[in-house]
Write the C-alpha coordinates for this entry.
Amino acid sequence: MDDDAKLIEFEAKIKRGEKIEPKDWMPERYRKQLIRMMSQHAHSEIVGMLPEGNWITRAPTLRRKMGLIAKVQDEAGHGLYLYSATETLGIGRDEMVDQLLEGKAKYSNIFNYPSLTWADMGVIGWFVDGAAIVNQTMLARSSYGPYSRAMLRICAEENFHKKQGYEIAATLALGTQAQKEMVQNAVDRYWWPSLMMFGPSDKDSPNTPLLMKWKIKRKSNDDLRQRFIDLTIPQAQRIDLTIPDPDLKLNKKTGHWEFGKINWDEFYEVIRGNGPCNKERMTARRKAHFDGEWVRIAAEEYAKKRKTNHSNNN
Amino acid sequence: MISNRDSKTGQALFEYLLRLGDDRLVLGHRLSEWCGHAPILEEDIALANIALDCIGQASNFLSLAGKVENKGRNEDDLAYLREAVDFRNVQMVEVPNGDFAHTIARQFLFDVYSYPLLDELQKSADGEIAGIAEKAVKEDRYHLRHSSEWVRRLGDGTGESHDRVQNAFEDLWTYSEELFFTDEVDDILVAAGIAPDLALIKKAWEEMVAKVMKDATLDIPGNDRYMAQGSRNGRHSEHLGHLLAEMQIVHRSYPGVKW
Protein backbone atom coordinates (compact mmCIF):
# COMPACT_ATOMS: atom_id res chain seq x y z
CA MET A 1 0.00 0.00 0.00
CA ASP A 2 1.45 3.42 -0.84
CA ASP A 3 1.40 6.33 1.62
CA ASP A 4 -1.61 7.97 -0.02
CA ALA A 5 -3.70 4.87 0.48
CA LYS A 6 -2.42 4.51 4.03
CA LEU A 7 -3.35 8.11 4.73
CA ILE A 8 -6.87 7.53 3.45
CA GLU A 9 -7.23 4.52 5.70
CA PHE A 10 -5.72 6.40 8.65
CA GLU A 11 -8.15 9.28 8.25
CA ALA A 12 -11.10 6.95 7.80
CA LYS A 13 -10.17 5.21 11.02
CA ILE A 14 -10.06 8.52 12.87
CA LYS A 15 -13.37 9.53 11.38
CA ARG A 16 -14.92 6.31 12.66
CA GLY A 17 -13.72 7.31 16.13
CA GLU A 18 -11.20 4.50 16.42
CA LYS A 19 -7.96 5.04 18.35
CA ILE A 20 -4.55 5.07 16.70
CA GLU A 21 -2.15 2.76 18.52
CA PRO A 22 1.69 2.88 18.56
CA LYS A 23 2.17 0.14 15.98
CA ASP A 24 -0.39 1.56 13.54
CA TRP A 25 0.77 3.51 10.52
CA MET A 26 0.55 7.27 11.02
CA PRO A 27 1.60 10.28 8.98
CA GLU A 28 4.91 11.78 10.04
CA ARG A 29 3.19 15.07 10.85
CA TYR A 30 0.77 13.31 13.20
CA ARG A 31 3.70 11.68 14.98
CA LYS A 32 5.64 14.96 15.16
CA GLN A 33 2.70 17.00 16.44
CA LEU A 34 2.00 14.40 19.10
CA ILE A 35 5.62 14.27 20.22
CA ARG A 36 5.62 18.07 20.44
CA MET A 37 2.38 18.23 22.43
CA MET A 38 2.98 15.24 24.69
CA SER A 39 6.59 16.02 25.55
CA GLN A 40 5.62 19.64 26.19
CA HIS A 41 2.95 18.33 28.50
CA ALA A 42 5.47 16.08 30.30
CA HIS A 43 7.96 18.95 30.65
CA SER A 44 5.20 21.14 32.10
CA GLU A 45 4.62 18.60 34.85
CA ILE A 46 8.31 18.57 35.68
CA VAL A 47 8.90 22.31 35.61
CA GLY A 48 5.56 22.72 37.36
CA MET A 49 7.02 21.00 40.41
CA LEU A 50 9.23 24.04 41.05
CA PRO A 51 6.82 26.88 41.92
CA GLU A 52 4.89 24.59 44.27
CA GLY A 53 7.98 22.84 45.60
CA ASN A 54 9.02 26.35 46.59
CA TRP A 55 6.38 26.36 49.37
CA ILE A 56 6.64 22.83 50.75
CA THR A 57 9.12 23.83 53.43
CA ARG A 58 6.94 26.76 54.51
CA ALA A 59 3.48 25.18 54.41
CA PRO A 60 1.60 26.51 57.45
CA THR A 61 0.32 23.22 58.93
CA LEU A 62 1.43 19.61 58.78
CA ARG A 63 -1.74 18.67 56.92
CA ARG A 64 -1.08 21.32 54.28
CA LYS A 65 2.56 20.29 54.04
CA MET A 66 1.52 16.70 53.35
CA GLY A 67 -1.11 17.75 50.84
CA LEU A 68 1.40 19.84 48.95
CA ILE A 69 4.13 17.17 48.93
CA ALA A 70 1.58 14.64 47.67
CA LYS A 71 0.54 17.01 44.89
CA VAL A 72 4.08 17.70 43.73
CA GLN A 73 4.79 13.98 43.90
CA ASP A 74 1.76 13.35 41.68
CA GLU A 75 3.17 15.83 39.17
CA ALA A 76 6.43 13.90 39.02
CA GLY A 77 4.35 10.77 38.46
CA HIS A 78 2.40 12.45 35.66
CA GLY A 79 5.66 13.53 34.06
CA LEU A 80 6.97 9.99 34.19
CA TYR A 81 3.75 8.59 32.79
CA LEU A 82 3.65 11.13 29.97
CA TYR A 83 7.29 10.56 29.04
CA SER A 84 6.51 6.84 28.78
CA ALA A 85 3.43 7.50 26.66
CA THR A 86 5.51 9.74 24.37
CA GLU A 87 8.17 7.05 24.07
CA THR A 88 5.60 4.92 22.23
CA LEU A 89 6.10 7.37 19.34
CA GLY A 90 9.74 6.42 18.98
CA ILE A 91 11.58 9.06 21.00
CA GLY A 92 13.55 8.36 24.19
CA ARG A 93 13.10 10.12 27.52
CA ASP A 94 16.76 11.20 27.51
CA GLU A 95 16.31 12.93 24.18
CA MET A 96 13.18 14.71 25.38
CA VAL A 97 14.91 15.85 28.58
CA ASP A 98 17.86 17.13 26.53
CA GLN A 99 15.45 19.12 24.35
CA LEU A 100 14.00 20.74 27.47
CA LEU A 101 17.39 21.54 28.99
CA GLU A 102 18.72 22.94 25.73
CA GLY A 103 15.70 25.21 25.52
CA LYS A 104 14.43 23.57 22.33
CA ALA A 105 11.24 22.22 23.86
CA LYS A 106 8.58 24.35 25.51
CA TYR A 107 6.62 23.91 28.69
CA SER A 108 3.58 25.74 29.97
CA ASN A 109 4.19 29.48 30.37
CA ILE A 110 2.36 29.57 33.67
CA PHE A 111 5.33 28.05 35.49
CA ASN A 112 7.48 31.00 34.54
CA TYR A 113 5.60 33.12 37.08
CA PRO A 114 6.83 33.22 40.69
CA SER A 115 4.97 31.72 43.64
CA LEU A 116 5.08 34.54 46.18
CA THR A 117 2.79 33.61 49.06
CA TRP A 118 1.12 30.58 50.58
CA ALA A 119 -2.10 31.67 48.84
CA ASP A 120 -0.44 30.86 45.53
CA MET A 121 -0.65 27.19 46.52
CA GLY A 122 -4.40 27.57 46.62
CA VAL A 123 -4.76 29.61 43.47
CA ILE A 124 -2.36 27.48 41.42
CA GLY A 125 -4.35 24.37 42.32
CA TRP A 126 -7.63 26.11 41.60
CA PHE A 127 -6.73 27.98 38.37
CA VAL A 128 -3.80 26.08 36.90
CA ASP A 129 -5.03 22.58 37.65
CA GLY A 130 -8.53 23.75 36.80
CA ALA A 131 -7.34 24.92 33.38
CA ALA A 132 -5.37 21.70 32.95
CA ILE A 133 -8.52 19.67 33.62
CA VAL A 134 -10.50 21.54 30.96
CA ASN A 135 -7.70 20.88 28.47
CA GLN A 136 -7.12 17.28 29.51
CA THR A 137 -10.77 16.29 29.57
CA MET A 138 -10.72 17.21 25.89
CA LEU A 139 -7.44 15.37 25.32
CA ALA A 140 -8.82 12.25 26.98
CA ARG A 141 -10.85 11.90 23.77
CA SER A 142 -7.74 12.34 21.63
CA SER A 143 -7.30 9.95 18.70
CA TYR A 144 -3.94 8.67 19.92
CA GLY A 145 -4.62 5.76 22.30
CA PRO A 146 -1.70 6.12 24.73
CA TYR A 147 -2.25 9.89 25.12
CA SER A 148 -5.96 9.49 25.62
CA ARG A 149 -5.47 6.82 28.29
CA ALA A 150 -2.76 8.86 30.04
CA MET A 151 -5.15 11.81 30.18
CA LEU A 152 -7.96 9.78 31.73
CA ARG A 153 -5.70 8.65 34.52
CA ILE A 154 -4.06 12.02 35.08
CA CYS A 155 -7.36 13.92 35.03
CA ALA A 156 -8.66 11.97 38.00
CA GLU A 157 -5.72 13.19 40.09
CA GLU A 158 -5.90 16.73 38.73
CA ASN A 159 -9.49 16.92 39.91
CA PHE A 160 -8.30 16.16 43.40
CA HIS A 161 -5.58 18.82 43.11
CA LYS A 162 -8.08 21.39 41.98
CA LYS A 163 -10.38 20.63 44.91
CA GLN A 164 -7.44 20.89 47.29
CA GLY A 165 -6.40 24.21 45.73
CA TYR A 166 -9.90 25.67 45.86
CA GLU A 167 -10.25 24.57 49.47
CA ILE A 168 -6.99 26.36 50.37
CA ALA A 169 -8.18 29.48 48.54
CA ALA A 170 -11.63 29.32 50.15
CA THR A 171 -10.17 28.90 53.64
CA LEU A 172 -8.09 32.03 53.11
CA ALA A 173 -10.93 33.96 51.50
CA LEU A 174 -13.16 33.24 54.48
CA GLY A 175 -10.36 33.88 56.98
CA THR A 176 -8.93 37.06 58.45
CA GLN A 177 -8.57 40.30 56.50
CA ALA A 178 -4.85 39.59 56.00
CA GLN A 179 -5.56 36.12 54.63
CA LYS A 180 -8.23 37.48 52.33
CA GLU A 181 -5.82 40.07 50.97
CA MET A 182 -3.20 37.36 50.47
CA VAL A 183 -5.52 35.23 48.34
CA GLN A 184 -6.95 38.18 46.38
CA ASN A 185 -3.39 39.18 45.54
CA ALA A 186 -2.69 35.68 44.23
CA VAL A 187 -5.87 35.75 42.14
CA ASP A 188 -4.81 39.11 40.70
CA ARG A 189 -1.43 37.70 39.67
CA TYR A 190 -2.55 34.33 38.34
CA TRP A 191 -5.79 35.09 36.50
CA TRP A 192 -4.43 36.38 33.20
CA PRO A 193 -1.49 33.98 32.91
CA SER A 194 -3.98 31.14 33.56
CA LEU A 195 -6.10 32.26 30.60
CA MET A 196 -2.97 32.22 28.46
CA MET A 197 -2.46 28.55 29.31
CA PHE A 198 -4.87 27.63 26.52
CA GLY A 199 -2.52 29.04 23.95
CA PRO A 200 -2.96 31.72 21.30
CA SER A 201 -6.32 32.73 19.96
CA ASP A 202 -7.68 30.39 17.24
CA LYS A 203 -6.92 32.89 14.51
CA ASP A 204 -3.23 32.81 15.52
CA SER A 205 -3.01 29.06 16.04
CA PRO A 206 -1.88 27.63 12.70
CA ASN A 207 -1.71 24.02 13.91
CA THR A 208 -5.26 23.85 15.20
CA PRO A 209 -7.20 22.89 12.03
CA LEU A 210 -5.01 19.88 11.30
CA LEU A 211 -4.88 18.85 14.97
CA MET A 212 -8.68 18.96 15.04
CA LYS A 213 -9.05 17.08 11.78
CA TRP A 214 -6.88 14.29 13.11
CA LYS A 215 -8.67 14.51 16.45
CA ILE A 216 -5.46 15.05 18.37
CA LYS A 217 -7.33 18.03 19.77
CA ARG A 218 -11.12 18.01 19.96
CA LYS A 219 -11.76 21.65 20.80
CA SER A 220 -10.09 24.92 19.88
CA ASN A 221 -8.02 27.06 22.26
CA ASP A 222 -10.68 29.75 22.45
CA ASP A 223 -13.47 27.27 23.19
CA LEU A 224 -11.47 25.71 25.99
CA ARG A 225 -10.57 29.12 27.40
CA GLN A 226 -14.22 30.12 27.40
CA ARG A 227 -15.18 26.92 29.18
CA PHE A 228 -12.57 27.56 31.89
CA ILE A 229 -13.81 31.12 32.40
CA ASP A 230 -17.44 30.03 32.58
CA LEU A 231 -16.58 27.40 35.18
CA THR A 232 -14.30 29.57 37.29
CA ILE A 233 -16.19 32.88 37.65
CA PRO A 234 -19.02 31.39 39.76
CA GLN A 235 -16.42 29.65 41.93
CA ALA A 236 -14.73 33.00 42.60
CA GLN A 237 -18.08 34.65 43.31
CA ARG A 238 -18.97 31.95 45.81
CA ILE A 239 -16.00 32.88 48.00
CA ASP A 240 -16.24 36.59 47.31
CA LEU A 241 -13.02 37.02 45.37
CA THR A 242 -12.73 39.52 42.55
CA ILE A 243 -11.49 38.47 39.12
CA PRO A 244 -9.22 41.25 37.89
CA ASP A 245 -11.05 42.00 34.65
CA PRO A 246 -13.34 45.07 34.56
CA ASP A 247 -14.82 43.88 31.25
CA LEU A 248 -16.24 40.63 32.59
CA LYS A 249 -19.92 40.43 31.77
CA LEU A 250 -22.35 37.54 31.59
CA ASN A 251 -23.99 37.37 28.20
CA LYS A 252 -27.46 36.12 29.11
CA LYS A 253 -28.24 35.06 25.57
CA THR A 254 -25.22 32.80 25.11
CA GLY A 255 -24.75 31.96 28.79
CA HIS A 256 -21.05 32.73 28.40
CA TRP A 257 -18.92 35.26 30.23
CA GLU A 258 -17.46 37.92 28.00
CA PHE A 259 -14.00 39.00 29.03
CA GLY A 260 -11.38 41.67 28.40
CA LYS A 261 -8.35 41.68 26.19
CA ILE A 262 -5.58 39.21 26.84
CA ASN A 263 -2.11 40.70 26.71
CA TRP A 264 -0.69 38.56 23.92
CA ASP A 265 2.55 40.54 23.86
CA GLU A 266 3.25 39.25 27.35
CA PHE A 267 2.35 35.72 26.23
CA TYR A 268 4.81 35.75 23.34
CA GLU A 269 7.52 37.40 25.42
CA VAL A 270 7.29 34.67 28.08
CA ILE A 271 7.37 31.98 25.35
CA ARG A 272 10.50 33.60 23.97
CA GLY A 273 12.12 33.15 27.36
CA ASN A 274 11.50 36.62 28.73
CA GLY A 275 9.18 35.78 31.61
CA PRO A 276 9.84 36.50 35.28
CA CYS A 277 11.16 33.01 36.08
CA ASN A 278 12.23 31.40 32.78
CA LYS A 279 15.89 31.62 33.71
CA GLU A 280 15.43 30.37 37.28
CA ARG A 281 13.31 27.42 36.20
CA MET A 282 15.77 26.26 33.56
CA THR A 283 18.73 26.84 35.87
CA ALA A 284 17.05 24.69 38.53
CA ARG A 285 16.29 21.89 36.06
CA ARG A 286 19.78 21.94 34.59
CA LYS A 287 21.36 21.96 38.03
CA ALA A 288 19.31 18.94 39.12
CA HIS A 289 20.23 17.16 35.90
CA PHE A 290 23.95 17.86 35.92
CA ASP A 291 24.38 17.46 39.69
CA GLY A 292 22.65 14.11 39.33
CA GLU A 293 24.71 12.83 36.45
CA TRP A 294 27.15 10.86 38.60
CA VAL A 295 24.20 9.17 40.32
CA ARG A 296 22.70 8.00 37.03
CA ILE A 297 26.08 6.75 35.81
CA ALA A 298 26.67 4.89 39.08
CA ALA A 299 23.24 3.24 38.88
CA GLU A 300 23.93 2.12 35.33
CA GLU A 301 27.37 0.81 36.23
CA TYR A 302 25.98 -1.11 39.19
CA ALA A 303 23.23 -2.64 37.05
CA LYS A 304 25.84 -3.74 34.52
CA LYS A 305 27.99 -5.34 37.22
CA ARG A 306 25.00 -7.18 38.60
CA LYS A 307 24.14 -8.48 35.17
CA THR A 308 27.71 -9.71 34.60
CA ASN A 309 27.85 -11.36 38.04
CA HIS A 310 24.51 -12.95 37.42
CA SER A 311 25.55 -14.46 34.08
CA ASN A 312 28.91 -15.60 35.56
CA ASN A 313 27.05 -17.44 38.29
CA ASN A 314 24.86 -19.29 35.83
CA MET B 1 -5.68 5.24 76.47
CA ILE B 2 -3.68 3.40 79.10
CA SER B 3 -4.30 4.22 82.70
CA ASN B 4 -0.71 4.18 83.89
CA ARG B 5 0.04 7.62 82.51
CA ASP B 6 0.74 8.89 86.00
CA SER B 7 2.65 12.12 86.14
CA LYS B 8 6.10 10.56 85.95
CA THR B 9 5.28 8.09 83.18
CA GLY B 10 3.19 10.71 81.44
CA GLN B 11 6.05 13.17 81.41
CA ALA B 12 8.48 10.54 80.16
CA LEU B 13 5.99 9.50 77.51
CA PHE B 14 5.55 13.08 76.34
CA GLU B 15 9.34 13.44 75.99
CA TYR B 16 9.59 10.12 74.21
CA LEU B 17 6.85 11.01 71.73
CA LEU B 18 8.59 14.30 70.97
CA ARG B 19 11.75 12.35 70.19
CA LEU B 20 9.84 10.03 67.86
CA GLY B 21 7.88 12.85 66.28
CA ASP B 22 10.68 15.40 65.91
CA ASP B 23 13.08 12.92 64.29
CA ARG B 24 10.53 12.24 61.59
CA LEU B 25 9.33 15.82 61.21
CA VAL B 26 12.81 17.24 60.68
CA LEU B 27 13.94 14.37 58.45
CA GLY B 28 10.76 14.64 56.38
CA HIS B 29 11.34 18.37 56.04
CA ARG B 30 14.90 17.86 54.81
CA LEU B 31 13.82 15.16 52.36
CA SER B 32 11.06 17.37 50.99
CA GLU B 33 13.73 19.90 49.98
CA TRP B 34 14.70 17.46 47.23
CA CYS B 35 11.30 17.70 45.61
CA GLY B 36 11.88 18.80 42.01
CA HIS B 37 15.68 18.65 42.30
CA ALA B 38 16.49 14.93 42.45
CA PRO B 39 18.98 13.21 40.10
CA ILE B 40 16.24 11.24 38.33
CA LEU B 41 12.50 11.60 38.15
CA GLU B 42 12.00 8.26 39.90
CA GLU B 43 13.89 9.67 42.89
CA ASP B 44 11.81 12.84 42.94
CA ILE B 45 8.90 10.49 43.46
CA ALA B 46 10.63 8.19 45.95
CA LEU B 47 12.09 10.94 48.14
CA ALA B 48 8.79 12.84 48.17
CA ASN B 49 7.03 9.64 49.12
CA ILE B 50 9.40 9.00 52.02
CA ALA B 51 9.14 12.64 53.12
CA LEU B 52 5.37 12.29 53.13
CA ASP B 53 5.52 9.13 55.26
CA CYS B 54 7.91 10.76 57.72
CA ILE B 55 5.73 13.83 58.16
CA GLY B 56 2.64 11.66 58.48
CA GLN B 57 4.31 9.63 61.22
CA ALA B 58 5.50 12.83 62.89
CA SER B 59 1.99 14.22 62.81
CA ASN B 60 0.65 11.10 64.54
CA PHE B 61 3.34 11.01 67.21
CA LEU B 62 3.09 14.75 67.92
CA SER B 63 -0.68 14.62 68.06
CA LEU B 64 -0.43 11.87 70.66
CA ALA B 65 2.26 13.88 72.49
CA GLY B 66 -0.18 16.77 72.74
CA LYS B 67 -2.86 14.48 74.17
CA VAL B 68 -0.46 12.98 76.71
CA GLU B 69 0.74 16.41 77.76
CA ASN B 70 -2.87 17.48 78.21
CA LYS B 71 -2.27 21.21 77.88
CA GLY B 72 -4.35 21.71 74.78
CA ARG B 73 -1.48 21.65 72.27
CA ASN B 74 -2.03 19.82 69.00
CA GLU B 75 0.53 18.54 66.49
CA ASP B 76 0.73 21.91 64.72
CA ASP B 77 1.30 23.81 67.96
CA LEU B 78 4.13 21.43 68.72
CA ALA B 79 5.64 21.59 65.23
CA TYR B 80 5.29 25.30 64.59
CA LEU B 81 5.42 27.02 67.95
CA ARG B 82 8.40 25.47 69.68
CA GLU B 83 11.94 26.85 69.62
CA ALA B 84 14.95 24.85 68.48
CA VAL B 85 16.03 24.08 72.04
CA ASP B 86 12.64 22.47 72.66
CA PHE B 87 13.05 20.05 69.76
CA ARG B 88 14.12 16.53 70.61
CA ASN B 89 15.29 15.13 67.27
CA VAL B 90 18.78 13.78 66.74
CA GLN B 91 21.24 16.06 64.96
CA MET B 92 21.71 13.60 62.13
CA VAL B 93 18.32 14.53 60.64
CA GLU B 94 18.80 18.30 60.87
CA VAL B 95 22.11 18.64 59.03
CA PRO B 96 21.71 19.97 55.48
CA ASN B 97 21.10 17.43 52.71
CA GLY B 98 24.49 17.67 51.01
CA ASP B 99 24.67 15.66 47.79
CA PHE B 100 22.53 12.65 46.95
CA ALA B 101 25.09 10.29 48.56
CA HIS B 102 24.85 12.24 51.81
CA THR B 103 21.06 12.17 51.77
CA ILE B 104 21.03 8.43 51.06
CA ALA B 105 23.65 7.59 53.71
CA ARG B 106 21.74 9.61 56.30
CA GLN B 107 18.47 7.99 55.32
CA PHE B 108 20.03 4.55 55.54
CA LEU B 109 21.56 5.12 58.99
CA PHE B 110 18.21 6.42 60.20
CA ASP B 111 16.10 3.71 58.55
CA VAL B 112 18.20 0.94 60.04
CA TYR B 113 17.49 2.50 63.42
CA SER B 114 13.85 3.40 62.82
CA TYR B 115 12.62 0.16 61.30
CA PRO B 116 13.51 -2.19 64.20
CA LEU B 117 12.40 0.48 66.67
CA LEU B 118 8.94 0.75 65.11
CA ASP B 119 8.82 -3.01 64.79
CA GLU B 120 9.28 -3.30 68.56
CA LEU B 121 6.91 -0.43 69.28
CA GLN B 122 4.10 -2.42 67.71
CA LYS B 123 4.22 -4.46 70.92
CA SER B 124 4.11 -1.38 73.16
CA ALA B 125 1.93 -1.55 76.25
CA ASP B 126 0.54 1.78 75.08
CA GLY B 127 -2.11 0.85 72.53
CA GLU B 128 -1.99 4.19 70.76
CA ILE B 129 1.76 4.05 70.19
CA ALA B 130 1.43 0.46 69.04
CA GLY B 131 -1.24 1.53 66.57
CA ILE B 132 0.89 4.31 65.07
CA ALA B 133 3.91 1.97 64.90
CA GLU B 134 1.92 -0.75 63.18
CA LYS B 135 1.14 1.54 60.25
CA ALA B 136 4.55 3.24 60.24
CA VAL B 137 6.61 0.05 60.23
CA LYS B 138 5.16 -0.90 56.86
CA GLU B 139 6.28 2.43 55.46
CA ASP B 140 9.70 2.06 57.03
CA ARG B 141 10.18 -1.35 55.49
CA TYR B 142 10.00 0.35 52.11
CA HIS B 143 12.25 3.23 53.23
CA LEU B 144 14.93 0.79 54.36
CA ARG B 145 14.74 -1.19 51.16
CA HIS B 146 15.06 2.00 49.14
CA SER B 147 18.00 3.44 51.08
CA SER B 148 19.92 0.17 51.42
CA GLU B 149 19.58 -0.51 47.69
CA TRP B 150 20.97 2.92 46.96
CA VAL B 151 23.86 2.45 49.39
CA ARG B 152 24.79 -0.72 47.49
CA ARG B 153 24.36 0.98 44.15
CA LEU B 154 26.49 3.99 45.04
CA GLY B 155 29.09 2.03 47.00
CA ASP B 156 29.58 -0.54 44.26
CA GLY B 157 28.82 1.75 41.31
CA THR B 158 31.64 3.93 40.03
CA GLY B 159 34.80 5.21 41.72
CA GLU B 160 33.19 8.60 42.14
CA SER B 161 29.97 7.29 43.65
CA HIS B 162 31.97 5.03 45.98
CA ASP B 163 34.05 7.95 47.24
CA ARG B 164 31.07 10.22 47.62
CA VAL B 165 29.06 7.75 49.68
CA GLN B 166 32.11 6.71 51.73
CA ASN B 167 32.74 10.38 52.54
CA ALA B 168 29.10 10.83 53.44
CA PHE B 169 29.28 7.97 55.95
CA GLU B 170 32.48 9.45 57.40
CA ASP B 171 30.74 12.82 57.87
CA LEU B 172 27.56 11.33 59.30
CA TRP B 173 29.22 8.88 61.65
CA THR B 174 29.68 11.73 64.12
CA TYR B 175 25.92 11.70 64.60
CA SER B 176 25.39 7.95 64.82
CA GLU B 177 25.85 7.46 68.56
CA GLU B 178 23.07 9.87 69.41
CA LEU B 179 20.52 7.51 67.95
CA PHE B 180 21.10 5.21 70.90
CA PHE B 181 21.23 7.79 73.67
CA THR B 182 19.16 6.76 76.64
CA ASP B 183 18.25 8.49 79.90
CA GLU B 184 15.58 8.09 82.54
CA VAL B 185 12.87 8.68 79.94
CA ASP B 186 13.83 5.33 78.45
CA ASP B 187 14.30 3.69 81.83
CA ILE B 188 10.77 4.57 82.90
CA LEU B 189 9.15 3.54 79.62
CA VAL B 190 11.13 0.34 79.19
CA ALA B 191 10.13 -0.67 82.73
CA ALA B 192 6.50 0.07 81.87
CA GLY B 193 6.69 -2.02 78.67
CA ILE B 194 5.92 1.05 76.57
CA ALA B 195 9.29 1.41 74.81
CA PRO B 196 11.87 -1.18 73.77
CA ASP B 197 15.40 -1.33 75.11
CA LEU B 198 17.54 0.69 72.70
CA ALA B 199 20.51 -1.58 73.40
CA LEU B 200 18.71 -4.31 71.44
CA ILE B 201 17.95 -1.94 68.58
CA LYS B 202 21.60 -0.92 68.56
CA LYS B 203 22.69 -4.51 68.08
CA ALA B 204 20.33 -4.96 65.12
CA TRP B 205 21.53 -1.62 63.73
CA GLU B 206 25.20 -2.56 63.91
CA GLU B 207 24.60 -5.89 62.19
CA MET B 208 22.57 -4.46 59.39
CA VAL B 209 24.87 -1.48 58.81
CA ALA B 210 27.86 -3.82 58.68
CA LYS B 211 26.15 -6.15 56.24
CA VAL B 212 24.95 -3.54 53.78
CA MET B 213 28.19 -1.56 53.89
CA LYS B 214 30.19 -4.73 53.24
CA ASP B 215 27.95 -5.55 50.25
CA ALA B 216 28.51 -2.01 49.08
CA THR B 217 32.31 -2.39 49.39
CA LEU B 218 32.37 0.43 51.95
CA ASP B 219 34.45 0.76 55.11
CA ILE B 220 32.70 1.28 58.40
CA PRO B 221 34.02 4.50 59.93
CA GLY B 222 35.70 4.27 63.33
CA ASN B 223 34.46 5.88 66.53
CA ASP B 224 37.73 7.75 67.13
CA ARG B 225 36.18 11.10 66.35
CA TYR B 226 33.95 13.68 67.97
CA MET B 227 30.61 12.01 68.57
CA ALA B 228 27.73 14.46 68.73
CA GLN B 229 25.54 14.41 71.80
CA GLY B 230 22.87 16.31 73.64
CA SER B 231 20.12 16.75 71.08
CA ARG B 232 17.64 14.52 72.94
CA ASN B 233 17.83 17.25 75.56
CA GLY B 234 17.66 20.13 73.15
CA ARG B 235 21.31 20.76 72.28
CA HIS B 236 21.36 20.93 68.53
CA SER B 237 23.56 22.06 65.70
CA GLU B 238 23.14 25.60 64.37
CA HIS B 239 21.28 24.19 61.37
CA LEU B 240 18.05 23.46 63.21
CA GLY B 241 17.26 27.10 63.93
CA HIS B 242 17.42 27.97 60.25
CA LEU B 243 15.32 24.98 59.29
CA LEU B 244 12.65 25.96 61.82
CA ALA B 245 12.76 29.61 60.79
CA GLU B 246 11.75 28.54 57.32
CA MET B 247 9.26 25.91 58.43
CA GLN B 248 7.49 28.14 60.97
CA ILE B 249 7.49 31.51 59.19
CA VAL B 250 3.98 31.47 57.72
CA HIS B 251 2.34 29.80 60.69
CA ARG B 252 3.90 32.26 63.13
CA SER B 253 3.22 35.31 60.99
CA TYR B 254 -0.54 34.86 61.33
CA PRO B 255 -1.15 33.68 64.89
CA GLY B 256 -4.23 31.64 65.60
CA VAL B 257 -5.76 31.55 62.13
CA LYS B 258 -7.16 28.61 60.18
CA TRP B 259 -5.29 27.31 57.16
Chain B has a mean pLDDT of 96. Chain B touches chain A through 48 residues (CB under 8 Å). Chain B has nine helices and no strands. The CA atoms of residues 94 and 240 of chain B lie 6 Å apart.
